[in-house]
Design goal:
By secondary structure, the protein is mainly β. It has one helix and 54 strands.
Amino acid sequence: MKSQRGTTLIEVLVGTAIIGLVFSFAITAFMLSADKLTRSKIRILAAALANEQMEIIRNLPFDQVGTQGGSPSGNLPQNQQIVRSNITFSVAIIVDWVDDPFDGQIPADTTPTDYKKVEVVISWANSGSANVKLTSNFSPKGVEAAANTGSILISVFDASGLPVSQADITLTNNNLSPAINLTRQTDDSGNYQFIGYPPDLNNYHIAVTKGGYTLDQTYPVSAENPNPIKPDISVIANEVTSSSFAIDRVSSLAVATQNATCQAIGNIGFNLKGQALIGNPPPNPVLKYDEDHTTDAAGNKTISNLGWDNYMLTLLGTSRNITGIIPPTSLNVLPNTNANLTLVLSDSYSTDSLLANVKDANTNLPISGASVRLVYGTYDETKITGQGAWLQTDWNGGSGQALFTDATKYFEDNGAVEVNATPGQVSMIKSTSNPNLAESFDSDANKDATASNAVWDTSAGEIRLPQTGGVYDFNATAQSLQLTTPAGKIVSATLTVDEELNGQTVRYYLSADGASFEAVTPGNLHNFVQTGGDLRFRVEFSTTDQNQTPVVRSLGIALTIETYANSGSLTSSTFDTGSASSFIMLNWNPENQPSEVGSESVRFQLAANDDNATWDFVGPDGTAGTYYTVSGTPIAGALQNKRYIRYKLFLQTADVKYSPAISGVSIDYTSGCTPPGQAFFGGLSSATTYQVTIQKSGYVDLVVDVDISGNLQNTFQLTPN
């Protein structure tokens, strides 16, 4: 016979181990890739800094090219620290004389100081051998050329400091007659010499590019750029003018604007500016790239021909705020890349806000799941980085809304909940009854003997002051026992009386809870401060004439009693996260309910799907038989990786005089539309210093002060323990 066999335990264990190894390898590969990207970005910044320093040196007179305390001597510091993009770089400058063999060498050359060799070395923490070094020669005289002419030595390199061959160099000078306008190409070492040109100060304009590459150039002094970093160069008779240029392949940046649920928001204007400068103060820095753009109706804008740089993006206008950037590093544009950037925008605008970007101090990677607490005076708010939240705090718009678009509406209820009685609150629906009670004093069954010293005359059917020695006492009280025990809560009453004052005084009191007596005026509606289910009356007699007593012959009490439903339910509208999501936590407030309503008076179930049609509500174990009864409970695994979600609220009470109430429900989640490592705070106070506390397991707590003015985007780095 042919036998059938299942999977053995050993096979299951082996399969599980293999899967674990695959996931471990994938995670390791991701971390190595992220680390490599971070190192590449640092190297690009270092190369730009080296070029900047070399350009500063190139603009010095030859006799000033030297270091402090070195030989040759000059004003250049041998070592200094410079910060770029929150990274501290060490800058070392080395200047030496060189004896060139063209005119002989020592000892034949009696003047060996032919030219100067300058090295700029940029290093950073843990750079090792990956530091960036630029070397350049500085000559006091030109190579051989016609008398009274000078030469120009051009060097072209890319973002990594490597030479760029066959780069197009355009040299123009309209100040000369005839004007100069010619184009040459660099050799395999990225160099080209323009030899034998007429002397002219600061009028030789050079532009360097290559097909598919960025442009680098010199700039004339102008009103727009009065102090260019790389000014148009000079040609000096019998000297060589050297200048270097950095170009690399162009990139593009695709910008998308949307809300927190991946819905596109079109026609959004924004400004994009880089950090690279072409001019220094005064009066203001002149940026190499500073342009305004607008996304199309679908919320998209592709910007082409961008140079490598660290860019900053800000919105134009005052309709929305940037609440997140996905991914958080896309504004560091690398050469020859097609970067994608998603801006998550708010629905409204805050004049003053903070977008906190939390990163690992070692890897510079975003940290999600960190708590960011912002405190100033009575303002105290905590948010979790990398998490979105669906929040509902109002239901008075009523039922009938399938998709969550109006934050005050919901899908349906069972008719036993109330959403309008108290703004921003869901409670049980209540009904009212209006019974009437009467006391004629022809019986003392309702008399509280321990609290009464007035005469309760059942034969006369009245109450009055007692007598002592043939005259009436000045004061006395008649008080009842509990008159009724209604199922609901006594909230108001109107007292009517049959009284004969005889020129004296009677005061009336009612109690709805059996203990708190409140003064009432006959014939007027009285709303109880202390409501309850224990109605009693108190009558206080007083006289100023001991021969006279006031008399009360009957009381009538018209009541208003409120009774809450025993139970009720409400189902929310559908919340669309925009993509498959991880649902983290269900929270609600208030977390504690009145003791009278009993335990588990507030319960929830959740349902999630990808078709926005199949709603199977379950509790925290993923089954229909359980409920979320504690705020802050993790959401069931059965609901993960779904796009649509709803909640169902169940209210119940053990005492219909009281109702549980909910004023806020939130579901924390992460999705493809959730900015990693970021948290947004809107509605802040301008010119105010807030204390920011950031905490994450495995990291040292960070506490800093932040001055809020306008819409800030701050990066906070956490140090691992």
